[in-house]
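User: Predict the full complex structure for these chains.
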Amino acid sequence: MMGVRNLVISLFAFLIGCAGETNAPPTPTFHSEGYPEKLSDWGNLIAADGLLKLGYDVHPYDLATPLFSDYAMKLRTVTLPEGQLADYRQNDVFDFPVGTVITKTFYYNESGDGTVSYGAPGKLVDASLPLTGTRLVETRILAHRATGWVAIPYVWDEDQSDAYLKRTGAVIPLNIQHHDGRREAFAYVTPNQNQCAGCHAPNNTSRELSPIGPKARHLNKASTYHDGFNQLDYWRFAGLLRVTDDQAQSAPSNAVWVENHKDVSSARDLDARARAYLDANCSHCHNPKGPADTSGLNLEPDALGPALGLCKVAIAAGDGAGGRPYDIVPGHPDKSIFVFRMESTKPSEMMPELGRSLSHAEGVALIRNWIETMDGNCT
Amino acid sequence: MTRNAILRPSTSGMHLAATICLAAFLTACGGPDQSARDNSQKVAEKATSTNSGNDYQETLMTALLDAKPGDVINIPAGNFSFNRSLSLTVDGVTLRGAGMDKSVLSFKGQIAGAEGLLVTASNFTIEDLAIEDTKGDALKVNEGKNIIIRRVRTEWTGAPKTENGAYGIYPVQTENVLLEGNVAIGASDAGIYVGQSKNVVVRNNRAEYNVAGIEIENTLDADVYDNIAINNTGGILVFNMPNLPQEGARTRIYNNKINNNNTRNFGVAGTPVASVPAGSGVVINSNDQVEIFQNEIKNNNTANIIIASVFESGISQDGMTDVFDPYPESIYIYDNDMAGGGKSPDRMELKALKTLKFGPLGALPDVLWDGFVDPAKLVGGALPDAMRICLQNGAAELINVDGPNGFKNPEIATADHNCTLENLPAVTLTGPLAEG
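Assistant: Here is the predicted structure of the two-chain assembly.
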C-alpha cells in the first residue's frame, strides 16, 4: 500500500514539475500546540491565484449522506503524518495517528449581487477548488495532537485571501437563493470552539474530541474526487487506511444523498436513506453514550423501537415537543415531534440544536415520507 | 409587576465600567496563554466585522474557552447581552457574579443555541448571577460530578407563557449536586429541574411562576428542603419517566413552603409537565420511596398532594420499555401542615368529582391518588408493607380516584393508608461538597 501512496506522491511531484515552481502545492505544517492565527499557517489549504489549493498529501473526501449545514457545500480533506496509516474500524470512526489533520471548508456559490446559492460540491481541478463565483465562509480544523483531538475554527475574510482564527464563533448575514428561486436572508453562525465539542465529543462521559465523518459507513461509496474508485478503496490504495480485504468487503455503507434525494432511482430504499440521514445529522449526540442520551433517543443505524422514537414521549423537549405526543407517530408526520423539530428554526425548538439557521426542506421531506409509510398505532 | 421591581434593579450605565473591569481581571490572570488570547482577539476583529458591539460576549466566551481547572471567572455587575449560547467544557471552574440582581446575562437577542449556558464539566460552581430570557434552557449542566449552583437567578422576565424556555436550572446526569439559594421564575417546564442524577441537595431556593417549580426526575437520593414553591402550576414534582438510563428513587421533601400553585398550565402540549393540573402542590409520578414531611402545603386548588402513575398521563405503552416501573410505591406522608387545597380542581373530571362527592362548595381531600397498583407485586391481594402509600397526617384525608376503572368509584381511603414506613436516610454530600 505504501507503494501506491508513493505513486500518488510521485504523481503530485510530476504535476508540480509541469506547473512550474511558483504553482507548487503548499506544504502542510502540523502544529502540535497552540492556535495558529491563520488557516494558511497550516498549509493544508491555501487561497491563491483564484484557487483554493490543497497541499501535498492533502486528500479530499466526501460522505454518503452528510450533515446539513444551511445548504453550505463542503470540501473535506484528510492529511496523515508521513509514513503512517489510520486503522480501520467497522462501526466507529477510524483510528487516526497523532499528526493527522482533517479540514472541512464550508462554501457557497455566489452571484454578482452577493446572493449565495448551492449545488453539487465542485470537482477539484489539479487539486484545487476554483474560487470564481465561490464564497468561502469557514474552515474548521481537527488536529490530532498527542493530547487528543483539538478543533480550531477559522472564518474566511471578505476578500477570500485567508481564514482567520475565530475561537468565539461568528455571525455572518447571508442571502440565499434556493433551487426554486426563493430567496431568504439568514444568519450563518459559526461555532465557538467549545461548541465544536457539542458534536465532536460523541461520548459525553469521556468527552474526548474526535472526527465524526470518517467512518466506514459514511465513506463506503463511489469516490467523488477519484473517478472509478470506491472511496474506501482509494483510502486503502493511497496509503491512508490499514484495512483487510475481508474488512473492506464487509464494510457497512450508508445510503448516498443523491441530488437531495430527488433521484430516487439511484438511491437506496426509503428506510436506508432516512436512517442514513438521521445517522449523519443526529447520532453524534443521540447515541447511547452521547450528550443526548438524557432523552433516551438513539438514532444510530441499529436503534429500534422506543429508543428510535417510535411512540416515545419526549423527556425534556420543552418547546421542541411542539404540541405533538410522540417522537414518531407511525403514519403521521404531522403528529411526530421529529418533523416539528426539523422544520423549526427557533433555537428552543429545533434539532439539531446547533449548526443550522435554516430548515432543510429536502431532509424534512425525506423523514416525512419515511414516517408516512410506517405502520402501527401508539397504543 | 412587583416581583420584577424587586428582582431587577436598574443596572444601566454600568456596562462599560464592567467590561473594563473584566478586561483588567483577564489581563491579571493571563498566564502562558495570554499571547494566544491577544492574537485571537486581534484577528477576531479582522475576521468578523459583522460582530462589532458584542464586546462582553467576546470577552466572556474567550474566558470560558481559555479556562483552566481551578480558575475563577468573575463576572462584574452589569447587564450584558448575548446573541449566542455560552458553553464551558473544562473541569474545576468557578463562575462568579456580583449578585443575582447585579450581574445579569441577558439572552433576549439570542439567535442560536438551545440554552444560555451549557456546562459539560465536573467540579463546577456557579454563583451570584442571573441568566435571563434564554430561548431554550437557561443553565444546563449535562453530566458532571460535584456541581454547586447557588444564588443564581434564572428568569423569563415577561409573563409566564409557553414561548418561555423550558428549564431554568437544569443539571442532568450529574452526581453530588448542591442547588441552594437560587431563584427560578417563568420556565415553561421546570424552574429547577434535576434529571437522572445522584446524591442531590436542593435547599433554600425559590421557584415561582413556572409550570413545575422544582422537579426531581429519574434521580436517586435527593433531599429537597427549606424551599419556597409558590404560584407555579405544580409546586414540587417527583417523577420517573420511561426509556431513560436511570430510574429514580429516594427523595425527601421537607420543611418547604408549597403554596398557591394555581398558575394555569402553560407548558407545551406533548411535554410530561403539560399534563400536570394547575393547582398541584406536590406531585409524585411513578417514583418510589418518597417521603413528604413537615412542609407547609396550602391553597393548591386541585390537591395539595397528588400521587399518580404514568398510566394516568395516558402515554403509549408501545413507546415504553418493558423494564419501566410505572407504579409509585413506598410513599410516606406525615406531619405536614396542609390546608385550603382542592377547592377548584383544574380538570373537568376532577371538577365533576369534587362537586358530586363533596358538594359545590366542598373541596377534594389533601391527598389524591390515582389508584394504580402493580398486580404483580400483590401478596395475598395486598402490597407488601414496605411498598405502601402511608399517611400519618392528622386530619388530612386521601382519596383513591379509581383510575384503573375509569374513575368510576372514587372513595375516601384514608383508613387504608394508616401505616408507617421506615425513614429514608439523609443525603450526604461528599468530596468537595462535604459539609463539616
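Chain A has two domains: 2-247, 264-372.
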